[in-house]
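Lab meeting, item 3. Inverse folding demo.
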């Protein structure tokens, strides 16, 4: 068991503690922080068990499984928050997760990897496809704002109807991406697997021989636990925001993605420090695409079924932040090379946006 695995195992203690803090009616900030820390190991165990199951059931079904459960944490937290009526927080967490993956996760990976290796390389073809797909997501986010800005007396149902149609179209494109990466152009994406050294391949081969049902059980238990922990987090959210003096915008865009995506940030940085930038880019940009193309559309459809006014009409400042993140990430990733200064550029951009969201009224 690696040091990272041991830390995540010890962090599981925060799961029962989070329930105890709520039961004792402790300070909302304490409940919020403890439940946020409890989410981190659960997210890691869900990701690990999903990968193990995917390795056993084969590349096609496994790829679909990874695509579905890859962002289970964000999905569960958001659905619980939607049920509680925190629509604006959910919207903010969607944009915040995309921005954090592109600027914080990828930035930290490129910076830390660049400190150890003068220049690192990754697949430019895959990077260009990811960049173009992110541009599509950006277009969809910009369109409701443009409709709202160019119309007078616009009814909410108009944006809701557009959002439902756009959500379905995004899901269609996401399925086409899966078909492209797992079937028609699978060889392009499989090149990343060559970055695993022989010892890691041996370890993975041994791990894949473990019980399929054991990993399914872990996945189910952690998912159920995550639902209850998310309920505790969301229940303390509004009071914690008021107590800390943060806005819902800052909490959704900055704080919640840090809890939900901590494992992905660490994973991306770890791969980069081992000179495996293809894997690092796949984690950071791939996760952003899953959020934009799969999680956000599902949340729009689920929210409308719940009777919550969930749509793709985001705060203009959130859309601006996503646009900045997409444009800067695309500008440094399409050549297939990276260095530490580009990583610093992404991190400083994230810090600037974080400060802007903190001071935004």
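The presenter then showed the designed sequence:
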């Amino acid at each position: 068991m690696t040091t990272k695995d041991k830390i995540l195992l010890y962090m599981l203690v925060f799961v029962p503690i989070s329930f105890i803090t709520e039961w004792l009616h402790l300070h909302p900030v304490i409940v919020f922080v403890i439940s946020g820390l409890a989410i981190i190991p659960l997210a890691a165990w869900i990701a690990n068990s999903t990968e193990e199951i995917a390795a056993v059931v084969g590349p096609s079904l496994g790829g679909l499984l990874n695509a579905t459960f890859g962002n289970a944490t964000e999905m569960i937290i958001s659905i619980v928050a939607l049920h509680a009526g925190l629509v604006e927080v959910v919207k903010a967490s969607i944009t915040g997760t995309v921005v954090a993956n592109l600027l914080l996760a990828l930035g930290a990976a490129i910076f830390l990897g660049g400190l150890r290796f003068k220049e690192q390389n990754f697949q430019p073809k895959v990077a260009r496809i990811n960049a173009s797909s992110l541009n599509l997501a950006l277009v969809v986010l910009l369109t409701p704002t443009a409709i709202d800005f160019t119309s007078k007396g616009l009814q909410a149902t108009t944006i809701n109807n557009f959002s439902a149609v756009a959500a379905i179209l995004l899901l269609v494109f996401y399925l086409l991406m899966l078909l492209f990466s797992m079937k028609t152009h699978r060889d392009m994406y499989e090149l990343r697997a060559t970055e695993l050294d022989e010892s890691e391949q041996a370890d993975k081969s041994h791990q894949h021989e473990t019980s399929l049902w054991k990993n399914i059980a872990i996945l189910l238990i952690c998912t159920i636990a995550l639902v209850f922990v998310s309920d505790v987090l969301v229940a303390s959210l509004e009071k914690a925001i008021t107590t800390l003096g943060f806005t819902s915008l800052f909490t959704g865009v900055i704080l919640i993605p840090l809890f939900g995506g901590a494992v992905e940030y660490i994973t991306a940085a770890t791969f980069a420090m081992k000179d495996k930038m293809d894997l690092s880019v796949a984690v950071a940009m791939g996760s952003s695409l899953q959020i934009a193309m799969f999680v956000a559309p599902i949340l729009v459809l689920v929210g409308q079924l719940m009777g919550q006014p969930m749509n793709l009409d985001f705060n203009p400042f959130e859309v601006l932040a996503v646009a900045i993140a997409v444009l800067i990430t695309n500008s440094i990733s399409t050549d297939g090379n990276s260095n530490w200064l580009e990583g610093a550029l992404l991190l400083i951009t994230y810090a600037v946006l974080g400060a802007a969201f903190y001071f935004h009224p």
